[in-house]
Amino acid sequence: MRRDDDVRDLGLTFGSATLGIGIGLIVLSAGFWVSAMTLPSNTVVASRATAAATLAPISGATARATSVAATSATPQPSPTPRPSPTPVPTLGVTAYQDQNLRLAALTMPAGYTFTSPIAGRVAIVLYQLVDGAPRSGIDDPDLPQFPYIFVRSSDRELKIRPGALDKDVKLLVKDGDLVGTGQALFTTLTDGPSSWKTFYDANVRAQVIASAVALPSGNEVDPVPVFRR
Hints:
Layout: H1 2-72, E1 92-98, E2 101-107, E3 113-115, E4 120-130, E5 133-136, E6 146-152, E7 156-161, E8 169-171, E9 178-179, E10 184-188, H2 195-199, E11 208-214, E12 220-221, H3 224-227
Antiparallel strand pairs: 1-2, 2-11, 3-10, 4-5, 4-6, 4-9, 6-7, 7-11, 8-10, 11-12
């Protein structure tokens, strides 16, 4: 009876050991299978992480290099704007008739240099308003003087009547001077009107009233074409 009990205990012990070994083998097999299944995924993740870690410094270095290149580039200077050209004053020429004469009303701004449209000899006569009429040779210091500028060529004579001497105009020629076409006769100091306003027509606003005659006949001619040059 004692022997049977020993044999039974030995069998139970052996069976338990065998069962333990079997369970261990199953656990090891399961672990191996799980490792085999998960290893490729982990490897891919690790590879991607490694690649990202490798590219990040390169991208940063490239950005820094681009920034340095942009900073070190020599800035191009902005082009200097050219000043707008100063507009050239123009002479306004309008036909005008008064005192039974064909006249040219000439308008110009202050600071305008008036030039002769023809070549010829200059004669200057100064007029003053005395007793309501223009008079020459008076030389009254209390009255403004108005120059009449004559330019005589071989075939015509121009009579040019600007404003008051040394107030509205400054003469650039003297009596008896010879001038060429385009030579300066006077400069306007203001935009004051011609002496014609003082002597004949209070509505005149033009800075010069001019007339012309043919020589040697002395016949009146239209002065407008002469000054529209």
